[in-house]
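Notes to self, tRNA-specific adenosine deaminase:
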Amino acid sequence: MSECMTFTSQMEQALEEARAAEKRGEVPVGAVVVSPDGKVVSAAGNRVREWCDPSAHAEIVAIREACRILGSERLAGHDLYVTLEPCPMCASAISQARIARVYYGAADPKSGGVAQGPRVFSHPQSHHVPEVYDGIGAVESERLLKAFFARMR
Ligand SMILES: [Zn+2]
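result:
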């Protein structure tokens, strides 16, 4: 599989997780952790309502699962694909987990913490700064979120 195809299919898997989260009544956000050799280690969607847990964002759930599987509190060399710009809490967890690269879809002007708000990775207290690539699969990610919030009203 070419680099480009891998890249697309991994964000597609994160979008699948977002769609599954939406079916559970969650905000449609999905995340996938990928190992240095390109294998999906974990994939998750939001579980905030189901678990009554404000920290159960897709990124946190996927990182926890990957750490459990690997038996390590760090995911050095791993990549994270997430359909929405991580919030400050998730950005901080990504940094703590030493994730190498973050690929995200839609920007989140309301709650994002990477390109706006506290800009966690640009902060001097961020001890580990991943490479960040935005706008990957953003159109589909935004469509899911807009449809979800339109139904909420
Ligand atoms: Zn978050």
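- The chain has a mean pLDDT of 94.
- The chain is about 40% helix and 15% strand.
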